[in-house]
């Protein structure tokens, strides 16, 4: 069984851009939407992701917090394209920047389209209380704010958020 332990942060500034190792464009969509997850109808999200010439099917438990069950399987790009076009609840696009700092890998997602303007950093940890660098560019932690979950960004994109929501304050149910 795969377990993902991940913390998510807003970015305080753009200083991270100077240490980007590589970047990739990603398109992803969900075969089970956020409304079903929030209603407790389903116990997991099922995601399809395409990055370049690679694609994956990802299943993640629908639990709050930094630790979730996660399973990921490579699939043919043509299958992923068909799943996104025919069976997903919508898709989002982002550029994922990979940053290494003091031996720690940060993934910084810069969202596009209706989520343009949203930039978040994620760091995967070996255990919940593992230490990690906290550079000046790492801002407010939003790991427990469900509005920042990718599955929710399809149903309620960043363009629709209030100023308070954009600052990481909980205002709406999403």
UniProtKB/TrEMBL annotation:
Q: Output the superkingdom of the source species.
A: Bacteria
What CDD domains does this protein's entry cite? CYTH-like_CthTTM-like_1 (cd07891)
InterPro entries cross-referenced by the UniProt entry = CYTH-like_dom_sf, CYTH_domain, NeuTTM/CthTTM-like
- Pfam families given for it? CYTH (PF01928)
PANTHER family referenced in this protein's UniProt entry, alphabetically: SLR0698 PROTEIN
Full protein name = CYTH domain protein
The organism named in the record is Luteibacter rhizovicinus DSM 16549
């Amino acid at each position: 069984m795969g377990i993902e332990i991940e913390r998510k942060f807003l970015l305080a500034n753009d200083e991270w851009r100077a240490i980007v190792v590589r970047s990739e464009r990603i398109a992803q969509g969900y075969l089970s939407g956020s409304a079903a997850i929030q209603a407790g109808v389903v116990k997991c999200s099922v995601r399809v992701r395409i990055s370049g010439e690679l694609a994956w099917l990802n299943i993640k438990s629908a639990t709050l917090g930094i630790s979730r069950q996660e399973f990921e399987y490579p699939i043919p790009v043509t299958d992923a394209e068909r799943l996104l076009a025919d069976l997903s609840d919508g898709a989002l696009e982002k550029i994922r920047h990979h940053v290494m700092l003091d031996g720690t890998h940060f993934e910084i997602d810069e969202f596009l389209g209706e989520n343009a303007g949203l930039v978040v950093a994620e760091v995967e940890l070996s255990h919940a209380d593992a230490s990690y660098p906290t550079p000046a560019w790492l801002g407010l932690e939003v790991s427990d704010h469900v509005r920042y979950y990718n599955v929710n960004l399809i149903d309620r994109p960043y363009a629709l958020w209030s100023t308070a929501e954009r600052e990481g304050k909980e205002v709406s149910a999403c």
